[in-house]
Amino acid sequence: SSGINAEYGGNIPATGNKERLAAAATVRAAYQACILIANQRPQQSINALSKEILTFKCDVEAGLSVQSVSSFPSSYHVILDKGRYPVYLLVQNVIEKTKARELVPVLVKIVETMLFCIDVEQFKTRTLGELIPSLTKNPLIDYCPTTQQVAVGSVEGLVHVFDIRNGKCTPLHCHSAPTSAVAFSANGRALVTFSDSEGKVSIWQSSAGLLSLMSPGPLKLSRTVEALPPLKNGSRNAIFKWEAPKLVSLYTVDGTKKSFGL
């Protein structure tokens, strides 16, 4: 029961073995129920989790202590704060059980939730692929270990850039149609995005001044390029590949290749 208590972040009372086992069983049953609900309604569950996490972050930024306030919402925040690992497992289960295309509308919220659950220190020794293996093959997600940033494309055409070091998220207005692929350069000073529906590639670059040698500045739109004919339906399953520090290619499933220089 002590292992369950630690894993699920629950405050199981230590008043006796029977009480502790009963509390552990309740926690386990409640968690399994949450998994079943999340697998049946993945988008709704992710939206609900994301909303709670956003509220939690706003309260923390406002200086509200999750440990000292006894009101019901704040008590729920305590549970959320201590229960990051089970939330991580729950979302991981949803990703594995749900078809990828069904998760695209909530992909940004999935990444945001997973980053909330993972200790920032882990990114110093482990890659995103090791921490969230089920998301690494998605062309809508890319991680730059140099700058510790995650880019996530969305159906709105935005690309959300999460900075793991400070927890901030910057939305970039890349396309007027759903994003299909994103990719950072190795040094994180460039980001390329593609939209099948537009047939366009957007190239974003950070400032190249003296101060940027220590830390890249914010990404700014360099240019937008007509890459392929707009696709009304379906997907080309396009992916980016960096051929050189300043040369990137867009590959499609039918063998088409388009290269772009910075």
Can you characterise this structure?
With 262 residues, this protein is an alpha+beta fold. The chain has helices at residues 2-8, 17-40, 42-61, 72-82, 84-97, 100-103, 107-117, 128-131; strands at residues 141-144, 149-153, 158-163, 168-173, 181-184, 190-195, 200-205, 220-226, 239-244, 247-251, 257-261. The strands form 3 sheets. A 4-stranded antiparallel beta sheet has the order 1-2-3-4, with helices on one face. A 4-stranded antiparallel beta sheet has the order 5-6-7-8, with no helix packed on it.
Using brief descriptors, characterize the structure shown.
262 residues; alpha+beta; 36% helix; 4-stranded antiparallel sheet; 8 helices; disordered N terminus; globular; 23% strand; single chain
**Level of helix content?**
25-40%
The 3D shape can be described as globular
Content-based structural category: alpha+beta
Strand order of the largest sheet: 1-2-3-4
> What's the pLDDT, averaged over the residues?
82
How far is it from the N-terminal to the C-terminal residue, by CA?
A: 57 Å
| % residues in beta strands | 15-25%
- Which runs of at least 5 residues are low in confidence (pLDDT < 50)? 1-14, 66-75
